[in-house]
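ok here's Zinc ABC transporter, inner membrane permease protein ZnuB:
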Amino acid sequence: MIEALSYDFVQNALLAGILVSMAAGVIGSLIVVNRMVFLAGGIAHTAYGGIGVAVYFSLPIFLGASVFAVLAAILIASITLKHRERMDTFIGLMWAVGMALGVVLIDITPGYHADFMSYLFGSILAVSQSDIWFMGGLLAVIAFIMTFWYRDILAVSYDSEYANLRGINVPFFYTLILILSALTVVVAIKVVGLILVIALLTIPVYIAEKLSNTLFTMMLLSGLFSSIFTIFGLWFSYEYDISSGASIILVSAITLFSFLGVSKLLK
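and the structure:
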């Protein structure tokens, strides 16, 4: 693996993996404590519609997927805030429609033969310099927001009624969390694909949650664990010539099961 670092595409893949891992650690923690895992899954699959739009109109993939995912996040936020009892039905509908729209638009795009595997299971080795700038910019935005609004987001995440009584704009921060989740999902699709993105956002968080007593610590540990899983996943992928996205998730899952086994033995 050391000799592979001399290649630009491997360096880009490693840097992209770390940037996305840090973003996923922060946003994954918010997704878990807000019980939004299914919401994030819905956004991930809805984003495929944006990929189809980008391909059909010859737009940058990240742009199409990001705009589509953000619009889906805003729509989901506006509906689930008022009609939580209909949440599962609505998310399932968006999940199916987004995927169907993406498939149809890609199918009817003249002369385009889509590599479905790269969207479903990631293509981190194909990350470009512009992709890295996008990922770095997103991580900077997340860091900025968490620095200035950490206490408000903390209050909304753990007790929205108390936050509302304190005068915190709960709908705004709820929507903001979903928008950041949508953008993080989009960049994570490049690393592990939309099929596996939820695992990247939850497995490191689950381990970190067991070792943390504050949300801030959980975010830091989640980002650290996710970065380690990504690095070892890339090494595993390089050594055995298999899909990098699947390798990253397998490393994460093996670590999780090992952690659970050791925890059980120590009780």
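+1. The chain has one domain: 3-262.
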